């Protein structure tokens, strides 16, 4: 088995390798994004590894630095014809070594909760469970409103104070969606809230007796729908709130913010708990069918 950097010339091999993956769920998205997803050769913060056996593509994975000590591992795929031959382990070990060489102390990954095979493989390789979250969705609306007694500000200090002491932060272990990468999470700091306030958006729900909720816009991106249409999505890296009314105000604030961007849809990460999920349902937003799991590995050990 040989492990090397993946290149644009490997596209057809990757398409063939992933052709039968997730067929029951509409197929693998990797071929659709491959050329944009692949890093430049001189990129010091990202590397995509390809495993080959007898010259044939057997597996692929990407490693990325999200902060000076946090690495992210994503899109691990193994050709069905080469499973149970140690491909996933070799690719993952290459990621670990690459991340350690760049002084990363922890590595993380998101795995769909329905992907039993990947969950089993991740635990066998050394990943440990960290937390779970669910995406919720709403339509942008310039006129969206919440309960009348709530005001909305953009104070990053208030946002950080609320977030750092919230049940959501505790459940998510301080993690939120990373602005640097799609489908990635990292620790969110007070400096991040300052940056979000300057560069994207911070939303803070205020009630008569103090702060009741917060969110930040992690990024805005374009995607192609199942019908082939392109849509703009405003993504919010975490949603945290005290109660259903605060959730209504926070979702309304996000709907208004997204409308100013002329986005077609919002996507918000929330903690996967009975309270937060049922609050979101009661607030009238659309829920993803299933949660996603976050796992991590200590790269210092």
TrEMBL record:
Alphabetized PROSITE patterns for the sequence: GNAT (PS51186)
Record lineage: Archaea, Methanobacteriati, Methanobacteriota, Stenosarchaea group, Halobacteria
Domain N-acetyltransferase: 1-145
Superkingdom to which the source organism belongs: Archaea
Keyword terms: Transferase
Name the record gives this protein: GNAT family N-acetyltransferase
Ranges in a coiled coil: none
Organism expressing this protein natively: Natrialba swarupiae
One function term, GO molecular function aspect: acyltransferase activity, transferring groups other than amino-acyl groups
InterPro entries: Acyl_CoA_acyltransferase (IPR016181), GNAT_dom (IPR000182)
Signal peptide: none
């Amino acid at each position: 088995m040989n492990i090397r950097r993946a290149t644009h010339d490997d596209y057809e091999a990757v398409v063939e390798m992933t052709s039968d993956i997730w067929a029951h769920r509409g197929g693998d998205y990797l071929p659709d994004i491959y050329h944009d997803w692949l890093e430049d050769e001189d990129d010091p913060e990202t590397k995509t590894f390809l495993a080959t056996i007898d010259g044939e593509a057997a597996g692929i994975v990407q490693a990325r630095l999200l902060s000076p000590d946090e690495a992210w591992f994503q899109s691990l795929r193994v050709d069905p014809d080469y499973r149970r031959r140690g491909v996933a382990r070799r690719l993952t070990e290459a990621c670990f070594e690459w991340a350690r060489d760049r002084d990363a102390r922890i590595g993380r990954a998101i795995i769909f909760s329905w992907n039993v095979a990947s969950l089993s493989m991740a635990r066998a390789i050394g990943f440990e469970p960290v937390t779970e979250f669910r995406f919720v969705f709403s339509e942008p609306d310039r006129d969206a409103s919440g309960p009348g007694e709530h005001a909305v500000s953009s104070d990053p200090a208030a946002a950080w104070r609320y977030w750092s002491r919230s049940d959501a932060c505790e459940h998510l272990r301080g993690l939120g969606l990373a602005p640097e990468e799609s489908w990635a999470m990292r620790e969110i700091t007070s400096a991040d809230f300052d940056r979000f306030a300057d560069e994207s958006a911070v939303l803070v729900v205020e009630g008569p007796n103090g702060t009741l909720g917060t969110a930040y816009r992690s990024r805005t991106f374009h995607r192609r729908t199942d019908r082939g249409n392109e849509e703009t999505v405003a993504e919010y890296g975490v949603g945290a709130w005290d109660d259903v009314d605060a959730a209504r105000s926070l979702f309304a604030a996000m709907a208004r913010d997204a409308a100013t961007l002329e986005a077609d849809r919002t996507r918000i990460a929330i903690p996967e708990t009975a309270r937060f999920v049922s609050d979101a349902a009661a607030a009238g937003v659309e829920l993803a069918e299933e949660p996603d799991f976050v796992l991590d590995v200590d790269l210092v050990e």
